Amino acid sequence: MTAQAERPTYVGARIPSRNGARFVRGAGRYVDDIHLPREATLAVLRSPHAHARIVSIDTSRAAALDGVLAVATGAELFERIGPQSYLWDLPGQKVGHGRPLAVEKVRHVGEPVVAVVARDQYVAEDALELIDVVYEPLPPVVDFDAALAEDPVLLHEEWGDNIQVRSAWPVVIPGLPEPPDAGAALDGAHVVVSETFDVARMTATSMETRGIVCDYSPGGPSLTIYSSTQSPHQIRQGLAAMLGLAENQIRVIAPDVGGAFGMKAVVYPEDALAPYFALQLRRPVRFVEQRDESFVASTPSRAQRMQLELGFDAEGHIVGLRSRYLIDLGSAPSTCGAGTGWATGALLCGPYAVPAVDIQASAVVTNKSPLGAFRGFGQPEANFPMERLLDIAARRLSIDPVELRRRNLVPADAFPYTNAAGMLLDSGNYAALLDLAVSRPAYAEALAERDAARAEGRHVGLGIAFYNECTNFGPSGVFPLIGITQGGWDATTVAVEPDGKIRVTISQTPMGQGVETALAQQAADAFGVDLADVTVHFGDTASSHYTGYASGASRAAGIGGSSLLVAAGKAKEKLRAIAAHLLEANEADVDLLPGGFGVPNSGVDPIPLARIAAAAYQGGNLPEGMEPGLEFLGAFDPMALAFSYGVVVALVELDPGTGQVTVRRLIVGHDCGNQLNPAIVENQVIGGVVQGLSTALLEELPYDADGRPLALSLRDYPLPAPTDLPEFDLFHTVTPTPFTLNGAKGVGESGVIAAPAAIVNAIQDALPAGAPEITAIPVRPERILDAFGAQA
Amino acid sequence: MSTPTDLAADQLVRLRVNGEPLTAVVEPRTNLADVLREQAGLTGTHTSCHQGWCGACTVLIDGCSARSCLTLAVAATDTEVTTVEGLGEPDGSLTALQEAFVEHFAFQCGFCTPGFLVLATEILDEARAGTTFTRDDLAQRLAANVCRCTGYVGILNAVEAALAAQGTEVRS
């Protein structure tokens, strides 16, 4: 290929979203917009108790209501719907019954107890009110202390305790040298700092709640399922196993998905119930989660408590790290299992060169709704303790917090770098990004603003946090070692249509990331065609190729994009061969040129894609033995993960009278390797940072002492508003990863990882000297008032 | 949802939606959003919280923004309702506001977008009638709706650009 033919035209440009014209006309098509003839509606009766034995259930009045088509309890369905499978299946992990409806006892408020199918949502909800369930309340296990008490109340009696799984690092691998002893390193350290940190349970709150519309084919047990999901193939796989169908009897379509953030990556009870009733009733069944349900029925995330200890030498280099942490899984593992908890330990060292670690994690069950994934997947839970403790250490060591970080970042010449927890960091120049951040005019302005405000007696503080983000998840060979049951590769189909236009079918699921736009840019460049000549299709197991891990873990650009390049490469080989045949030229002399495939500098016009395609589909005049047609599948499995990285600087002001925190400025430096579309990257980073801002200050799913959730509406669960926005200074560096074909790393989770720590570090800086260390998020106003009070 | 039950007699609702007459027979408890979405087939109006907190269901009723999930359909009788589908120019092209949303990446998943567009249409109408806005005013007004994806920066920029495009610039 000549340099001329491969010149990037669209990749790297700020191309507007392909969805724009549809979305601004209100022509997006989400699951709830889909209605089918004869459809019925599923609604679920949920437990009002955190922990209770089910004594009896009487559904007769509900079943008799006009318009009710079916009613079923967990006991009635137990043998009919098999157990859920686990996407994360860590060694030694214990499981619950895995059925969609509770059996014998309930373990959290909101657990599904009875399913009702009726002619519409209004009647279905009427019917729920006619069901009589007698419960015998049991003592609820509401926190870590209760779960881990001596002789605790057990959620799953057969487990013998309330611990689902334990994990530890370093991992001793037979045949490899013994990992260094963190205990000895800490014993010999110049300074040791230690604190216990809490990250609250929070929830994705996608604006579109979960939904499923399931069509039934009378021609056989075959289902077409419209689902608001990130991972159509995983839904199909999970449901086939639970319902006893073959995977090819189920077609899962993800239409427009109205936000997901990891929450829509797993199989939910209603995902199995709707198809079950569609088969039973021989008619379409829909379920759309109501907002109040979403607070108890959709998986939340975070919910960790970590004791973290860092040892430093006299120069401020980290010599050892010890961590004991707990993750509150809720009542039973979701199909995500203890995945986020595992990620926290594996990624705890972050961007720092930590020579020795001793990390032990326990995943604990309590009487709350089951935990799942949420943007960042365990990484904010790791970053917050680490970045807070670095600030605490900086004061103890009398080293500037920026300088302390600089001394400990993995140096640029050390990549690829395997850290003490066994993670391979692919590439980066962390220190350069840090230096760039503190040389920004915005940084000098923020410092000046802080000092001026302080001179006026105002409480203004500056904080910094560094992070890396684990992306391009992940190499299939590694997955079995970390308990993931799927492959981590991705596949894309590229077809050159009979008229020479390009049709791309991706296995990724767009849910707002802009992946269909970015990948269209890549395809247009690969074939040297106009962007308008590329269509991108997705979200349908009948056409999208199987992918094990689907959309999540920031893998669309790097892995999805690389699989597209593999497919495009195959297409171009065949196009070149056909062109050579038509030109009667040597194949080796033919290249992709402006205007088509031809021989450079030959004086002969290149053959346009349309003419090559016409020949390929007509089939009668092709090189001997060549198959007709132009459709190609490309698959890509990365050699290793790729780590994006960045830095967040926050300037905050505290109101000592109200406890209100105002974030005035955020400086965000970021590197995700090659950017397919900088505008998409910017949008992802800003959106993530604002979620990080609310992680620091607002979002929490609290429970009372009886295990009752205290947030059941958007009134109780504060989300960030336009009025919460700071002034942004966003900048990028570009360090491509060597482990993808396009040099791209992921960007989806970057923003949310370090913003909480940066903001809390700034809050601490704004508090009077001697105020207690803030070690828990969110920092609600009462915490600020306490801190001022404790100091005074 | 027009299911007859014994709760109360169905009622006839007559209104105009995006300039066209709409007649529906509904239970008294049926909300306007359901009538728009399921009887008129105008699915651009989205429902998310059903409690008025998120604003995804915002429509204009006689020119004023309102939560269609909190508005009973019977209460909308004899009104003129504008949904996101009614925002385009008469020739089918996008309004300057819609263009600005596309240009400024004012959406990601697109679910909250119709509500924000309707809300912003009201702001633009007020600006044309003489009201002036600062960037902070815009943030206050747009805080009526929730977007979970964008962090609002693109939305604010788009509305500001649309105001500028109609000659009613945002005061600093």
Automatic annotation (TrEMBL), chain B:
It holds the Pfam family Fer2. Keywords: Iron, Metal-binding, Oxidoreductase. Residues 11-87 form the 2Fe-2S ferredoxin-type domain. The keyword Oxidoreductase applies. InterPro entries: 2Fe-2S-bd, 2Fe-2S-bd_dom_sf, 2Fe-2S_ferredoxin-like_sf, 2Fe-2S_ferredoxin-type, 2Fe2S_fd_BS, Aldehyde_Oxdr_Iron-Sulfur, Beta-grasp_dom_sf. This is (2Fe-2S)-binding protein. It comes from Sporichthya brevicatena.
